[in-house]
User: Which sequence fits this backbone?
């Protein structure tokens, strides 16, 4: 251990020297303004003392919409206005099309197969995902999966309402729904049974908690990624815990691949006796027959991981906020129900093909996403020197777009802090390209926007059509009082679902 301490001290001294030399090398460049920093640490201490969204707002107010932070060894450019974003994109789109390849995440991200630098490999995977997962044709082929899973959700909420089980944890319900949809697309089978969960089955809840833990976004920061001399230390802390979770996750996904392979990769998902598309695993295994060097186990597992993380976490979080918004805005809830009643009537349940005729419902989701906490895009990293506005940006600079600041800019939005879904019915394109950046920017923009919107609209629309949402409570804290302008996370949001009398007969036939 003494040897390691001496080695850490030596590396620290070398880093200070390198930091000073680099500072002298680029000090003649016109870098963006930056708060006072501490050697080695940079600005980490300023982000720890204050919630990050508030810290970024404070920096923006003092230094302008383009400023530079130093997070250990990684310089980070922050953009916090539409004008600043337009000065960077699309001009520097290719330059900022890389994601930082953080050492702690190499194994967790399967050798960065999906987060690979912009190039031939990434373009190949992007083309595959756009054509084989998120294209309009594929979304139509998977529509029955979404319809069936939504009906299962409605059916069991309805049944449980007559068993006295009226209060339901919304996050649990939406996680179950989203995981089942993603799993049927990925592997062709449902993973959870609604009835068991809603009857408070500890076994099923344990399965869900385990799956949520395995497929949660990597939100923690490993200090070893920003302070290389601490890599040996951080490896034995949080990183080792994540690797243990990764081992379980890897075994889970390997079992899915093995099962698909044992079925000769020819089985297709069957919904109500009708044949739909091959699963994502089936398609990738088929492609591996002719391109084994590309469609490796790492690429297949990286794709499954992406579907089960991106396809569940952000979707569930947004739907939870939508329900909370609807509870605090009964007029919006009624407007959405009126729209559904006018387009779908009460003789059947809403389905995937109805969504294009329900613009107000989609506006509710878009407005919720605009106002929801977070809104900060994933990091990018510059692959070469470039210019943003009047500033020089060195190669290897991380990019962080403060989406929350943009989404609440009074110069772009009328009454920006007000929940007003109808604003998305109005065309305001003349105000700029990057007004709403919920799903990202440029070549790395999320390709699954269409799928996510369909899942959320169908799920929320079904609840609005079929149930009255009478009450919501935090854990023994009385009636729900939401303040969506604050960044807190909803916790244990419970809803009382009461079947709507006009739809009783239709739901009972499910």
Assistant:
């Amino acid at each position: 251990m003494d040897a390691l301490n001496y080695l850490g001290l030596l590396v620290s001294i070398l880093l200070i020297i390198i930091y000073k030399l680099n500072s002298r090398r680029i000090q003649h460049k016109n870098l963006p303004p930056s708060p006072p920093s501490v050697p080695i640490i940079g600005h980490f201490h300023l982000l720890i003392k204050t919630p990050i969204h508030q810290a970024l707002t404070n920096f923006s107010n003092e230094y302008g919409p383009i400023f530079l932070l130093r997070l250990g060894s990684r310089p980070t450019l922050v953009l916090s206005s539409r004008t600043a974003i337009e000065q960077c994109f699309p001009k520097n789109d290719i330059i900022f099309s890389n994601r930082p390849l953080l050492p702690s995440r190499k194994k967790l991200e399967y050798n960065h197969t999906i987060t690979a630098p912009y190039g031939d490999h990434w373009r190949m995977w992007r083309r595959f995902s756009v054509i084989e997962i998120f294209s309009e044709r594929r979304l139509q082929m998977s529509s029955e999966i979404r319809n069936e899973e939504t009906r299962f959700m409605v059916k069991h909420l309805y049944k449980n309402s007559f068993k006295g089980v009226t209060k339901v944890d919304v996050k649990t319900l939406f996680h179950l729904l989203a995981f089942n949809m993603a799993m049927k697309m990925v592997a062709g089978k449902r993973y959870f049974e609604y009835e068991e969960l809603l009857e408070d089955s500890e076994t099923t809840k344990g399965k869900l908690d385990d799956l949520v833990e395995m497929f949660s976004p990597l939100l923690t920061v490993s200090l070893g990624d920003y302070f290389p001399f601490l890599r040996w230390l951080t490896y034995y802390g949080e990183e080792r815990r994540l690797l243990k979770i990764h081992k379980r996750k890897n075994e889970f996904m390997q079992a899915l691949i093995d099962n698909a392979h044992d079925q000769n990769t020819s089985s297709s998902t069957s919904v109500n006796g009708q044949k739909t598309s091959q699963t994502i695993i089936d398609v990738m295994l088929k492609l591996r027959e002719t391109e084994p060097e590309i469609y490796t186990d790492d690429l297949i597992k990286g794709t499954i991981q992406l579907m089960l993380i991106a396809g569940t976490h952000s979707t569930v979080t947004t739907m939870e906020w939508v329900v909370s918004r609807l509870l605090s805005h009964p007029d919006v809830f009624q407007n959405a129900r009126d729209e559904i009643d006018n387009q779908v009537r009460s003789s059947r349940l809403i389905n995937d093909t109805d969504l294009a005729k329900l613009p107000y419902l989609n506006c509710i989701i878009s407005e919720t996403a605009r106002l929801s906490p977070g809104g900060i895009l994933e990091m990018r990293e510059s692959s070469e020197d470039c210019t943003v506005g009047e500033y020089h940006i060195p190669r290897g600079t991380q990019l962080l777009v403060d989406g929350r600041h943009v989404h609440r800019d009074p110069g772009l939005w009328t009454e920006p802090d007000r929940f007003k879904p109808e604003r998305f019915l109005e065309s305001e394109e003349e105000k700029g390209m990057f007004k709403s950046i919920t799903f990202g920017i440029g070549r790395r923009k999320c390709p699954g926007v269409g799928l996510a919107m369909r899942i959320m609209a169908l799920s929320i629309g079904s609840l609005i059509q079929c149930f009255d949402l009478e009450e919501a409570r935090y854990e023994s804290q009385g009636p729900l009082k939401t303040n969506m302008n604050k960044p807190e996370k909803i916790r244990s949001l419970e809803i009382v679902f009461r079947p709507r009398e006009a739809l009783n007969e239709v739901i009972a036939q499910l």
Notes: The chain has 21 helices and eleven strands.
